[in-house]
Structures are given as structure tokens and as C-alpha cells.
Design goal:
heterodimer, A: globular, B: 329 residues, mainly alpha, two-stranded antiparallel ribbon
Chain lengths: 202, 329
Amino acid sequence: MVRLIAEGWLLGLSTGPYCLGACMPFMIPYLFAEGRPTWSANARVIGEFLLGRFLAYLLFGAGVGWIGGWLKPHLTQQAASLALGATAALMLLYALVKSLPHWTLCAWALRRLPMVRMPVALGFLIGINICPPFLVAVARLLQVGGLTSGAVFFLGFFAGTSLYTLPLLGVSPLTRVPRFQRIGTLSAVLVGGYYLAVALRG
Amino acid sequence: MASRVFVTGRISRWRSVFFIILAWAFIVQFKANLIGLTGRAFVTQDIQEVPYCHIAIASSFLNHVYQQYLALMSGAWQAWSPLTWGALWLGITLVLGQAWCSWACFYGGLDTGFARLRRKPLIKWERVPKALRDLPAGILVAMLLLSLVALKPIFCLWACPLKLGTGFLDPNNTTRIIQLGMFATVGVVFLIVLPWLTKKRAFCGLICPFGAWQAFFGQVNPYRVHIKPEACVQCQLCVKACPTFCIDQEGLKQHQVSPYCNRCGECMDACPTGAIDYAVGWRKPFALAPGVARIAFLLSAWLVAGAVSLLFVPEVLLKLWRWVFSWFA
């Protein structure tokens, strides 16, 4: 079991920069747009985001371990587009609601959005994005098999990759500035739109 | 032209003439021969991977940092050429700051040209909604992040109008057609139609990521545009004249100019009381008298813009002269 955790951890450490690349375009605009005033508030956002990722990894790890050889490559491709599309759509919705709160549709969504834990939802959706490091982990899981082994392996993988998201906290001193919040919201619209187009292209 | 500015005191008129010539000379020198090859020409790998224009470099700056890191780690010193560009940019930023965008940038010259075609705007457009005022900075942040993740200059690949005069390795697929459509749309809307209808430089004022980049780093440059409260009569002529939405009604009440201001001088030419002028943002012992600051800025601007124009404008004018002469010979 320890060997499996260590294997996942090392895989996470070696491929983590790629994960940072996947999270960064969503998280940096989100942190700015959210505009939390303190380091601890931003750390909480990142913590919730990591929780979402953790849930996704745990669920996916267990699922893949359980399904084992049933997982087919074309399914992963479709799931990747679907997850990316869902993440981008959520980001786009959040940014539009944030920048146009007086619009009827946005006001309606705004009343309901606080119920959704945005960072957790973003983390979860990015977590099930099937990126190359994730596929490497899945490939190893297919050899390992088993529900518990899968979850344990992905736990290690999650811990390894999560280290790379900590530098995101560095934007904290800027997030309280209203101008940066506006810039964050605008860039969130653009990033969401771009990835939605990428996901639709498949 | 520089002397006309000093003699007449009208900055923007003569700057615009120079600026438009600079932009069209750039098009003739670097792009015209490629236009016929749009969508078909092969581009070198260097051009694909190392963007050579300042807008591309700014919007994919993190990629350059990453490349420099790789070059440093592998000892590939010959791959350090972007650092030379970096030193050049630093020099220009220290001397001109945001004024680059109104004195030496070829994009700026293009939309200035179309904005100058009408004497009066067909559609009045004096303010941008608050939510969109920082759109250039939003585009810059998005482009920096997306370019780093994709390891490609996303602005160049999807939004640069001047890429219309460039080809791709695989021109016939759907993606290429969409890209070319985007280039044409951005170019027609923001460089031609909106400037022509509104007399505003829509590309520079609304979407250029380099404008946002210079607005941020240009703070190290000492020159500012200053509105003297005692001389300002709140006539709003500067709001109408500013082509990049940098003076609005709210700002004018507090005599403030947006950090995106690129020192074009339109507001100074429009102001009936001479309340707006260049200033040096240094503290008292180092502050320059307003007239001295104006001369210092104009000398700096003409020196840098002149140096840039010398790279290709004389050659283009010579080519045009020979071409015209050949018709009569």
C-alpha cells in the first residue's frame, strides 16, 4: 500500500507542472474576480478547489480501479472534452454573472450561484479533466486494478500534483484591488470562452 | 514634421501624419508581398514559435520566460535573442513608456489613419462601460495564461489582423479558415470600421494587449499627461477628442487621465485653455517646468519614433519613388 502511495506521489511530483498549467488559466482569473481581501481567504478558496480535485481523483481513481480493463481509449477522449466543456461553461457563467449582475438572467443565476461552492465545483471538473499525467496514472491503475488500490494510488497522485498549486496564493496581495477584480472577471470570460470553443471542437 | 510640431504647437496633427506613414510603410515593407500568399504560404518554424512583434511578445511573455529558463538550463546561449528584444523594450519603455502606442506602433498608425478619414464622427462614442474599461488588461492576462498552457502565441494565432498576410503550413482545414475569419473580422471591425465611424482608435483603446502591458510597465517612465485644475473649464472637448477613451467625464471632474493614455496629444490640441500638457511625474526637486517637460517629451518621442522609422520608411519611400518614376520613364 505504501509503495502504491509513493508511486502515485512521485508521479504527481513529476507531472505536476502540467496540472498547474491546467488549473492556472481557471484559477488565476477566478481568484482575481472573486477579490477576497486576505491571504487566508484566498488560501481557503485554493483549499476548496483542492477539495474538489481530491473528490474527483478519489472518485475517478476508485472508478477506474473498479472498471479496470473496461475503460476504452475513445471514452477517455470524449470524457476529456466533456469535462473541459463543463469547466469552461461554469467559468463563463460565473464571469458573466459577476460582470452583468443587473441582467435578468444573471440576477436569477446570482441568487442561485452562492449555493454552489464554485471553487469545489471548478476543482472537481478540472480534476476529471483527462490530461496526459492523468492518463499515465490511469494506465498504471489499469495494471493495478481494485477499488481501494485505485483510490490510494490517486490519493498519492493528488498530493504530489497539489504542491504545484500553492504558488497561486502569490496573487493574494492584488486580489483586493477593484481594478484587478474587473480584469480577472474579463479574463475569466475570455478563458472560459476559449476553452468552451476548444471543447466543442473536441 | 518634428519641426512643425515645435513651430505650430499642435502635436497630434503632425504626429499623425508621421505615424500613418510609418504604419503603411511597415505594411508595404513587411506584409504587402505576403498578402497574395494568404492561407497558402509556408512560414518558417522560427516565425511560428518566436513571435517577432511587440504585441505577440507581450501577450506570450511567460512563454519567453520559459524558453529562457530552458536555454539557461541547457547552456544554449544562442537561444537568448529574446533578451536582446527585452533590453530594447526596456530602453524604449524608460524613454517613451505608453507613448510607444501613439508614436511608433504600426497598429496604432493603421487605426489612426482610418480615424482621421472623417472630420467629424458619424457615431458619437465618448465612454466605455465601466466593466469593459480594462478589457485590454483582461485580454492580456487571458493571453498570457492561455499562451503559456498551449505553448503557442494565442493572440497571434487567433486575433492578430496582420496575420492575414501570413500563411500556415496546413491552410485548408476548418481551423485555418476560422483563424483567417477571425483575423479579418478583428481587422475590419477594430482597425477600419469603428475608427472610421467613431474617430476612436478602437483596436488600441479596446483590445490591444500591448497597450495594457505598457500601461502597467510604463509607470516607470516619468512623462505624464497632466490636466491643470486651475485652467480646466470642464468643456469636455478633451473627452470627445481622446481617441483611446482615456479621459472620460468622471475622470475629468477629478482632472485625472487613465493609465492607458498613450500621450498622443489629441487632447492638448483640442483644449481651448491650454489646461492639458505633458508633465514629468517626479517629485519637487526633480520636477521640470511644464514647458521644459513638453520639450523633453517631444524630443524623446521624435528620437525613438524616428529611429524606428529609419529601419524601413526611407527604403519604402525610395521604392515608391522608383515605382512612380518607372511609370513616366
